[in-house]
Design brief:
This protein is mainly alpha-helical. It has eleven helices and four strands.
Amino acid sequence: MKSKIFAVLEILLTYLVLRLLGIALRSTGVVQWEQETLGWSYTSEILFIAIPALVIWLARREWSDYGVSLADWPTNLDIGIKAYLVRIISVGVLVAALMFGIGYTSFKGGLLISIGEVFAIALMVWILQRQKTVASGKSNLVITGLLLLFPILVGLAMSRLTLIVVSTVVWQFFSGFGEEFVFRGYIQSRLNQAFGRPFHWFGIQFGAGLIVTFLLFGFFHAFNTYDPAIGLSSLSWGWALFTTFGGLFFGILREKTGSLVAPGIAHGLPDAVGEALGRLFGWM
């Protein structure tokens, strides 16, 4: 019981530090310069990753226990690419909603995207049951690189390529892996260590770690529209809703593969490509 209480307190304290740092950094000159020049704050994201990484390092724990491992990476990369293709369902719903003037931060938009996420989860579980071991990951590495280059090449062809578009590709891919490290790597793994994984569902073993983490992941995104320092005082429950289901999608990949490679690719790749294209075509 003590180990469970300690794990929960550790996570809550780490999460609180992340939130307070995020709020404090938004009002600094460095972050404001990054957002104006690059479109995103790399400093904030690095600190976001560094806090839980420091906790793991100070506790002298094994990185592989938190999904930081390249074991069987060709298979996990293959799963990640397939998960990227599956997530086109929910991303497509998001783009369609924006084209019809429905914001993804609204509850209606969040509900529509959530329906797409549910279909994506069902399809991904079906794919995972049929996944085979992949010997080489070279072709998937090339595919990943080409997908990341695609928005940049489109921007060049349209004569609209800017530093912010290039930065969006880099930051969103980096940020996708960063969020996966914090949520599916640190939080989900830490809870699994304390509470175990006693449940089974379509070949996926899981426990409280998966459930708590995807709920926390959604709640975390509700604060994306909350920043009193710049006059934002509302919480985005629509954003929280569809990212909750997105968190379940990524969490399932983490539990099935034991690595952050698949959820990192599934999270970072569509965000990088989709967000950059959205900026080029004025959807975002």
